[in-house]
Amino acid sequence: MDKILLWSLLLTFSGSQASSPLAQRNTEFAVDLYQAVCLSHKNNIIISPFGTTLALGMVQLGAKGITEQQIRQSLKFQETSNGEEFSVLKSFFSAISEKKQEFTFNLANALYLQEGFTVKEQYLHGNKEFFQSAIKLVDFQNAKACAETISTWVESKTDGKIKNIFSGEEFGPLTRLVLVNAIYFKGDWKQKFRKEDTRMMNFTQKYGAAVKIPMMKTLLRTKYGYFSESSMNYQVLELPYKGDEFSLIIILPAEDVSIEEMEKLITAHQILQWFSEMQEEEVEISLP
């Protein structure tokens, strides 16, 4: 395997959920967000489109006029009442919590509010109802203490993976509200890689240099597709996690196709097409 592009819509909905309205809108927003981030970052990136959707949704509950309109357009929300999209999110929260025994999926939201600052009760209630947001009072005038408080909360919700997310420099004398979203996922592959099959193999980096790295190897049956678009050939593979609720999508461009060319090709329609056209096949896989 010379080059891989790991594409994750956070953790992609698999099976029938891939065609649900929520998954379709999230996919469209995910592609827009990914393309925007790529313009300003040349190295590897990790983003959570779903987490960003939740954060912007929390903002939108308190927005009006042009701001509300722009957020809704960015999130691909239809021109309907506020509650409709967020009611779908409530169902998602409930569905995920019912399957905790098969994987760990922590999804947490919080509003850190300046002590003494008045916020409409309707806004706080909406955040609690739709996003299960915790409401916490802090004093942003003590920026360092606030940074430690919020960072500790994020660290606890991500099993210690994200630490010191704030330093205190982010807060100023006019800071009144900070919205925080944290997501943590840990799951086992539906079909596990055997540790004894790991081998040192060549991996070709972006600019052509090859390095020796440990590569997991296995032979398994999973959804796979070979596609050709705009004279570019590439392979798409789905690796489901145990429980079949989430999966990782891996894209392997042909050797003569660069990562940048492949990225430009990706659209929401394309991703949904992969789900509908991939078929179960026996595939030999090597992954870092």
Features of the shown structure:
288 residues, alpha+beta, Alpha-1-antitrypsin, domain 1, Antithrombin, Chain I, domain 2, 2 domains, 6-stranded antiparallel β-sheet, 8 helices, 35% helix, disordered N terminus
Task: Show the helix and strand layout.
Blueprint: E1 5-13, H1 21-40, H2 49-60, H3 65-74, H4 82-97, E2 104-114, H5 121-131, E3 134-138, H6 143-157, E4 177-186, E5 199-204, E6 210-229, E7 232-240, E8 246-253, H7 259-265, H8 268-277, E9 279-287
Parallel strand pairs: 2-3
Antiparallel strand pairs: 1-8, 2-4, 5-6, 6-7, 6-9, 7-8
Helix pairs in contact: 1-8
Structure notes:
The structure is a single chain. The protein is α+β, with helices and mostly antiparallel strands and 288 residues long. The protein folds into two domains: 5-18 and 189-287, Alpha-1-antitrypsin, domain 1; 25-186, Antithrombin, Chain I, domain 2, CATH 3.30.497. It has eight helices and nine strands. The strands form two sheets. Strands 1, 5, 6, 7, 8 and 9 form a six-stranded antiparallel β-sheet that branches. The chain has a three-stranded mixed β-sheet with strand order 3-2-4, with helices on both faces. The longest helix has 20 residues, at 21-40. The radius of gyration is 21 Å and the shape is globular. The model is unreliable at 1-16 (pLDDT under 50).
Let me know the number of strands.
9
Largest sheet: 6 strands, antiparallel
What gross morphology would you assign? Answer: globular
Structural class: alpha+beta
DSSP helix count? 8
Instruction: Show unreliable segments.
Output: 1-16
The CATH C-level name of the largest domain is Alpha Beta
Radius of gyration computed on alpha carbons: 21 Å
CATH topology of the largest domain: Antithrombin, Chain I, domain 2
> What is the averaged pLDDT score?
84
Total domain count: 2
CATH architecture of the largest domain: 2-Layer Sandwich
Q: Residue share in helices?
A: 25-40%
Straight-line N-to-C gap: 10 Å
GO molecular function: serine-type endopeptidase inhibitor activity
Keywords: Glycoprotein, Protease inhibitor, Secreted, Serine protease inhibitor, Signal
Signal peptide: 1-18
GO cellular component, one term: extracellular space
